[in-house]
Design a protein that fits this description.
single chain; mainly beta; 8-stranded mixed sheet; 8-stranded antiparallel sheet; 3 helices; 40% strand; elongated; disordered N terminus; disordered C terminus
């Protein structure tokens, strides 16, 4: 493995080892700042409507903390460098619970090398994507094209709750080392929100070396060292502006997420089905609007658990967990005895959750920041009515003077 502390790593590493890396022979000479802005204006018109985007958690944690699923990594697949450098590119991230995250991404100075969005991990030696937070969808990393200094500023950060939800706007804006900060490099995050808090110290793919970290509260800085290094993930509560300055000796990257809470719901049968055709649909809904945030249906003859349905949540709101019989089932839901249990990996959370609740619909009054909740509906076949055999002759029941009636129990 070659050291990555200088610009020479561009020559030492094959492009295949650095996904998205540009071979030197293909680089295009940079255009003057005015021409770049003019082209962006001509191509995109006077107005710059917000670019629609999404966020998603990693698929597996690796070495990430227990609350890894509460990190919704912002997908910058629609990032346009010319827009960001010509006054800013507006983004609206449509989140799974109906919330919207809005921000404007501006890159300065306009004369530096082009930034682009790439997948995680950015290269084979990066910490995030290789050792922790594995399988992040989309292109969450904003990546430099070569050496130099560049600043990305996210301004006008606004989180709009789903319709019908008021209050509870606390969220954590997350910033992370998206590549590898080596000798001669640095990565600095600044915020106008709550002081930066280290959320995770992501180990390197080999060894135990980390960049030098300094945290003044409003600014968190990584100063690079040689060799294979780990990286840091930090969070700030409720900022409206976050800036990232990357000094790259060769290549450098940063990635970002929104963090609040997550909930998943699954289904288990404890003793099979009343009828082989019986299947179950289970849902997570927003109590205020009855909007379904996540739904799944059992399948096959097994007892489960089946595929979970989940939702990333960005606001303190009430949720309803429910189950119904899926279309085509022969039995009604009343043929089963339900039990709902939820577990929260966030220690000390005030969120009230059910344990063995005999219900097919349960309202969680409110979820809290940092909750990582998993729930399961477990159903047992209900008791069946048994025939009562007649064991002795039934005595006659006289009604009136000459009438005799016999009551027969079967």
């Amino acid at each position: 493995m070659f050291p990555r502390g200088s610009i020479h790593r561009l020559l030492a590493l094959a492009p295949a080892a650095r996904p998205g890396a540009w071979p030197r022979a293909r680089r295009i000479t940079r255009m003057p700042t005015l021409l770049r802005g003019l082209l962006a204006w001509m191509l995109l018109g006077f107005a710059h409507p917000a670019t629609a985007a999404t966020c998603a958690p990693a698929t597996t944690p690796g070495t990430a903390p227990a609350d890894w699923a509460t990190y919704c990594w912002l997908d910058f697949s629609t990032y346009v460098d010319a827009l960001a450098r010509a006054g800013g590119q507006a983004f609206t991230f449509n989140l799974s619970d109906g919330s919207k995250l809005s921000l404007v991404a501006t890159v300065t100075p306009a004369s530096t090398s082009t930034l682009r969005a790439v997948t995680a991990p950015a290269w084979t030696g990066a910490a995030v994507g290789n050792t922790a937070f594995l399988g992040i969808p989309g292109k969450p990393i904003l990546y430099t094209g070569n050496s130099g200094r560049v600043t990305i500023t996210f301004s006008a950060i606004t989180l709009t709750p789903p319709p019908g939800i008021t209050g509870g706007s606390t969220y954590s804006f997350v910033a992370a080392d998206g590549e590898s900060t080596n000798g001669g490099e640095s990565l600095a995050f600044t915020t106008n929100g709550g002081n930066w808090v280290v959320l995770d110290q992501v180990p390197p793919i080999s060894g135990s070396t980390y960049p030098t970290a300094a945290n003044s509260g409003a600014a968190f800085t990584e100063t690079g060292v040689g060799g294979l290094v780990g990286g840091y993930i930090v969070g700030s509560l409720n900022p409206t502006q976050v800036s990232t300055t990357m000094v790259a000796g060769g290549l450098q990257g940063a990635m970002f997420a929104l963090r609040y809470s997550t909930i998943s719901l699954n289904k288990t049968l404890s003793a099979g089905r009343v009828d082989p055709t019986d299947q179950f649909t289970y849902r997570i809904s927003a109590t205020s609007s009855n909007t379904v945030l996540g739904t799944a249906t059992s399948s096959g003859p097994g007892n489960g658990p089946f595929s979970p349905t989940s939702s990333f949540l960005t606001t303190q709101q009430s949720l309803t967990l429910s189950e119904v019989m899926a279309p085509g089932s022969a039995s009604p839901l009343s043929s089963y005895v339900p039990s709902l249990t939820c577990v929260n990996t966030a220690s000390g959370s005030p969120t009230v959750l059910p344990t063995n609740a005999a219900t097919t619909s349960y309202v969680i009054p409110a979820i809290s920041f940092g909750d990582s909740i998993s729930c399961d509906f477990t159903n047992a076949k209900g008791a069946t009515l048994l025939g009562i055999a007649k064991s002795a002759p039934t005595p006659a029941l006289k009604v009136g003077v000459n009438s005799v009636y016999t009551l027969t129990v079967t």
